[in-house]
Design goal:
mainly alpha; 6 helices; about 60% helix; CAT-like_dom_sf; catalytic activity; Condensation_dom; Destruxin synthetase; phosphopantetheine binding
């Protein structure tokens, strides 16, 4: 499962619960009766989150991040043609293939550093973005 879908901890929970369901099903047991009851449900979390949004601390943090974003400037990307006066929102997609040898080296690099390929690729994107724009804090 891709890390955008679930993090490692969540995949572990999902795997354990799926194994419990499967085990119960092959023994003709009620799968829900085999799981511990949830200590909190999403509705409880949602109510807590709404309550937090009413606090002074939440407002302080919101004000801080709002000021950070307002103070930021858009990164000026290098372009190979002039920008239209009225933006169209149209863009192109560039695709390229990474050969197997490079992919294998990237996988080895990730393994040695105990990071995911997504982290390495995001780091490469950040480094490239800085090289092209001189901006090191994208908002």
């Amino acid at each position: 499962m891709h890390s955008l879908i679930a993090d490692g901890w969540s995949v572990g929970v999902l795997s354990r619960e799926l194994a419990t369901y499967y085990s119960a099903a092959i023994r003709s047991l009620d799968p829900l009766a085999q799981l511990d009851p949830l200590s909190i449900e999403y509705g409880d979390y949602s109510a807590w989150q709404r309550q937090q949004a009413q606090t002074a601390e939440y407002q302080r943090q919101l004000d801080y991040w709002t000021s950070c974003i307002e103070a930021s400037r858009p990164a000026e990307l290098l372009r190979d043609r002039p920008r239209p006066v009225i933006p169209t929102g149209c863009a192109e997609v560039e695709q390229f293939k990474i050969d197997h040898a490079l992919y294998d080296r990237l996988q080895q690099f990730c393994k040695e550093r105990e990071v995911t390929l997504s982290v390495v690729m995001l780091s490469a994107l950040a480094a490239t973005s800085y090289r092209l724009t001189g901006v090191n804090d994208a908002v």
